[in-house]
Each structure stands twice: as structure tokens, then as C-alpha cells.
Amino acid sequence: MKIRTGCSGFYYRHWKEVFYPVDLKPAQWFTFYCEYFKTIELNVTFYKFPTAKMLSAWYNKSPKDFLFIVKAPRLITHYKKFTDCTPEISDFYDACGNGLQEKLGCLLFQFPPSFKYTEQTLDLVLNNLKPEFNNVIEFRDISWWKQDVYEAFKANNITFCSVSHPTMPDDFIVTAPRVYIRLHGSPRLFHSSYPADYLRNLHEKLISFKTAEQAYVIFNNTAGTAGILNAQEFENLI
Fold it and tell me: How many Cβ atoms are within 10 Å of 137's Cβ, its own excluded?
């Protein structure tokens, strides 16, 4: 299995002196980040709808073997929740495909806690995704952790996002050739650091999966310096 480690975002001033050298200008932070990691989760696209031009700029700044994960805009996942937003979803796919080309790793759709499992909401997810892309779905309500969802995702080559989150199950679910794990910090959301034995166990578990070819391990415990330090430690295990 090929494992890629990264963080949700990179532009954090509190990483200065801990990760970024004190004399390094913010404009150089992304280039520096790329020296250590081969992927990043673009969280900015959750707040600002991406364009091909915007993503092409990221493409040009990144190394040849770098892969991007693009988080879907909240307009799609949180405001409209996949209802009556076919044009917006199509525009999102087009921007990502045209802007990032072969450097597009995955598209991450993170739904809010209010988006609960029903047969109808599962159909919304399945019917709105374009199967030619690597789609990752993250849920924030426990109702989605069920076998019917896993089987539907397997049948449609959709990755069920596994999470480390204070209120969500920490089971690792494999529904596609790609495994995607978001570590949000637990017990304190976005803040808690993961101990060395947790990271070692995670690495061992990943390499034991026989049905997956690739894994993305993304640290979102970035409110402090825990995320970047954990990401470096996990990358060293690889």
C-alpha cells in the first residue's frame, strides 16, 4: 500500500519556529511544506468555491508527484446538502479536474451532523457523485456507520472516510481501493495530539489491509502545533 501523509491546510502562523523556519516568508510556506509531504487537503475550497484558475495556480506551485485533496464547498454539503445543486456539483468537478489534472488525488465531501442516514439521503449521495473521480465521503452523524452504507459505497467505488473524532466511531472502514483517514484530535477536537503508540498502531493497521492500494492520512488537529508534529512523526514511520 502507498501511504500519503498530510495536513488539512498549511497556512498556520503558530507552526512558525515549530515547523517553518523563523526567517521563512509566508509566501514560501507551501514550497517548504512540499519538501516534507506529498499531499495536502485544501480546506480553503470549503469556504470559497474553487475555480480552475485558482487550482491551476496550486498545480504550478507543487512538485511533480504531489497530490491534492479538494474539500467540497459548504454550499454543496452544508447549505444545499446535495439537494437541487447539480450545477454547483458539476462546476466543482470541472474546476478540480481542469485545474489539477493528474495531481488531483481525491474530492472530499464532508457532511454536517444534521445530514442523517435515510434511504433517500443515501440515494442523494450515490446519485450526485461522478464515478470517474476519487470520491471520499465524511459523515458527522453515527447513523451512517452501517453495513448497508458500506456495501453501497463498495458497489460504487466510493471511499467511506474513517475518522478519529471525539463523538464518532473510530472503526477503519474500507470500501474502495483508497483508504482515507482524518484525524481531528481526540479527546479535544482540533487540539489533541496523538501519542507515538497510536501512530505506530495506525501504521501497522494500514499496511495490514489487503484490499486497499492507497491510503491518505490527514491530520486536522491543527488548532495548535499537534497536527504538524503528528504528521511529521507519522511520515517518519513510512
Answer: 23
pLDDT in tens, 49-99: 999 999 999 999 999 999 999 999 999 999 999 999 999 999 999 999 999
Contact (CB, 8 A) for 99 and 51: yes
* H or E element in which residue 216 lies: strand 214-219
Euclidean distance between CA atoms 202 and 225, whole angstroms = 20
Tell me the fold of 2-237: TIM Barrel (3.20.20)
Tell me: pLDDT of 42 over 90. yes
Beta-carbon contacts of residue 125 (< 8 Å; ≥ 6 apart)? 82, 109, 137, 158
Distance from C-alpha of 195 to C-alpha of 166, rounded to nearest angstrom? 16
Q: Which long-range contacts (CB under 8 A, 24 or more apart) does 87-96 make?
A: 88/49, 89/128, 91/49, 92/49, 92/50, 93/130, 93/133, 94/52, 95/49, 95/50, 95/51, 95/52, 95/54, 95/55, 96/50, 96/55, 96/70, 96/133
Residue 25, phi-psi category: left (phi > 0), alpha (psi -120 to 50), beta (remainder): beta
C-alpha separations of 135 from 11, 43, 55, 170, 229 in Å: 25, 16, 18, 20, 28
